[in-house]
Amino acid sequence: xxxxxxxxxxxxxxxxxxxxxxxxxxxxxxxxxxMGAVDIGLAALKTIVFINVGALVSLITxxxxxxxxxxxxxxxxxxxxxxxxxxxxxxxxxFIAAYFYQSAITGQFHVALSEFPLSKKPTPKKxxxxxxxxxVAMILLPIASLGEFACGASKILHIFEDAASVRAExxxxxxxxxxxxxxxxxxxxxxxx
Length: 193
Known about the structure:
By secondary structure, the protein is mostly helical.
């Protein structure tokens, strides 16, 4: 580019340097913001997986005490634990979605910085579609995981409430039988077909 004078050339070079400095600051800000968002997201995903796995571990350690209850209660608790397993799997899938989302964001940034995209690179339209799909997956999978945790916790609470009421009824009947022997005879007669 021919310059009218040396002063024009110096002014033009100074403008280019100023734009480069602004661009570098903008790029650094984008990178730091993105890294912060990734850190927050990873912490949230770890929490989701840990609460489901923690619930499973606590059920496994507690199941030894459940063997004294009737077998039906133990089977119900084992069946309810599937919700926690599914919640942990959904949390793991959210990690995978986050990985692909971050890769797509990096790819989009790379395409934006490159002046001549290679033919092997996906078009920005494909990247935008991938980003949208992964963003939706990153939102829905953790919500589903937390829903499975809540469902499993609710099932477990209902199972224990029912088991406690059955045990209380059995204790009440035992106490009545000890204090009133005729009660035991009435109970035996009422159970006959």
